[in-house]
Amino acid sequence: MTAGKIIIDQANDFDAADGSARDEIRRFAGDGGTDRSRRGLLKLAGIGGASMILGGRAHAASGIEGERDGARVFDPNRHGKVHTLPSTPETVRVGEMDPAVQSVLEIESGDVVHYQNTWVHWGNEAKFGMSFAERNVIRKRYPQGPQSLVGPVSIKGAVPGDVIECRMIRLRPIDWGWNSTVRGMGALPGDFQEPYLHYFRFDAERRFAEFAPGVLIPLAPTQGAIAAQPAGDKPTSALLLGAYGGNLSLASLVEGTSLFVSVEVPGAKMWTGDSNAAQGDGVVNQTGIESAMEDLRIQYVLHKRVALNAPLAETPTHWIVLGAGPTLEEALTAALRQMIGWISAATALSWHDVYALCSIEGSFRVTQYANQTNSNYSFPSPKVIHATLPKRIFSAERQTKISRSLRPQNS
After folding, report:
1. How far apart are CA 130 and CA 120, in angstroms?
2. What is the tens place of the pLDDT at every residue in 78-116?
3. CA atoms of 45 and 25, how far apart (whole Å)
């Protein structure tokens, strides 16, 4: 594929796979990962098996091995009132979180916000099939950042020093998305002299996207930006990251997971945007499959008097801490120190012990990396590392202590 070319992939219908194809998929999937099994899976994808290969991953994929084997983080059927919040010119701000904006919705802890038909980047001005040149005109109108942020939503009783748990109940993207590279951006800003733009259409069940003939991408939708309003009287760019959340770009934050962010202003004033249908750790060309949400549902749970110095996440099998910095080294050490301090305080293990655990069982992954030399935006994205520890290494008693360090009221 040529850089800069618009590639429009029409959705393929793989729903006609019969029982024999299912049997073959099971046989090849259990074949120990040999070359023959991989060839067989690719062959089956061409005859209708791809939906079954990918379908099980669409809502469980997280970028962490074994994710589907863990107990669920929360009960998605246990919640308060459901509030619908559409994206409109009155409810969306682009690229920044402005403390002067009044809350568009006030809810109780435990309520669910149903974000209906959220917007793509740049105030929903990006359209399927636009040329790079057409999009570039739009992009330059938003130097503060691209994300279409809907909100803010206030949670009754939230005050600075509290934490909001954001439970990912439902993430269904719209039927299209794109990946793009702007010259001078991404991890290799000097390697590509032409811009790149690739459009995708998704299948009706939102399970996969065809990248090219023989290349299928399983969808694992995430919200790239979730934040409580940062402290201060000036707008904060959504490209930044702090204990309040912000520019997360965490591929693991799929349905069934939770994000914990610090409250810095009364009511918390929650924002969200930057939907991705799929993305990898690092998002090295600066984008995943950028999209929007047809159906996004987040439950907000208030936890009182919880000290939090960095965004944390919980998946069925792992605890995750994000660290940001101007370099990957500084981001890694920030994530490591936060993980050590948190787990040590929660479990009564010493700092030395948790340091050793992180070295033995931890995983430190690049969340996002950019070396921007030609950014349109006022604030470059930080370099971010996420530190993970598997729950399985802890006893049930210690797992409970870790959970209660974030949920002291056992919500």
Report:
1. 13
2. 999 999 999 999 999 999 999 999 999 999 999 999 999
3. 9
Q: How far apart are CA 32 and CA 327, in angstroms?
A: 39
Q: Using alpha carbons, select from 138, 141, 149 the residue that is nearest to residue 115.
A: 149
pTM listed for this prediction: 0.83
Cis peptide bond N-terminal to 152, omega within 30: yes
Q: What is the pLDDT of residues 64-81, one digit of tens each?
A: 433 444 589 999 999 999
Q: What is the DSSP string of 321-363?
A: EEEEESSHHHHHHHHHHHHHHHHHHHH---HHHHHHHHHHT-E
Cβ burial 234-256 (10 Å sphere, 16+ → b, else e)? ebbbbbbbbbbbbbbbbbbbbbb
Lowest-confidence range among 54-63, 161-170, 285-294?
54-63
Residue 226 corresponds to which tokens in the numbers above? Answer: 């979730």
Q: For residue 275, give the nearest of 236, 248, 311 by alpha carbon.
A: 248
Quick one: pLDDT band at residue 375, thresholds 50, 70, 90?
low
Cα separation, 332 vs 387, in Å, equals: 8
Which residues have a Cβ under 8 Å from the Cβ of 235 and sit 6 or more positions away? 96, 97, 98, 99, 100, 144
Query: Are 219 and 177 a contacting pair, CB within 8 Å?
Result: no
DSSP per position, 108-140: -TT-EEEEES---HHHHT--TT--HHHHHHHHT
Residues 6 or more apart from 107 whose CB is under 8 A from it?
80, 81, 83, 113, 153, 154, 155, 156, 300
- Output the DSSP codes for 235-293: -EETT-EETTEEE---TT--TT-EEEEE--STT--EEEEEEEEE--TB-TTS-SEE--E
Measured between alpha carbons, how far is 202 from 208 in angstroms, rounded to an integer?
6
Four-residue CA torsion sign, 155, 156, 161, 164? negative
Cα separation of 301 and 268, whole Å? 11
285 vs 14 pLDDT, higher one: 285
Q: Which domains does the chain have, with CATH numbers?
A: 12-55 (no CATH), 67-406 (2.60.120.580)
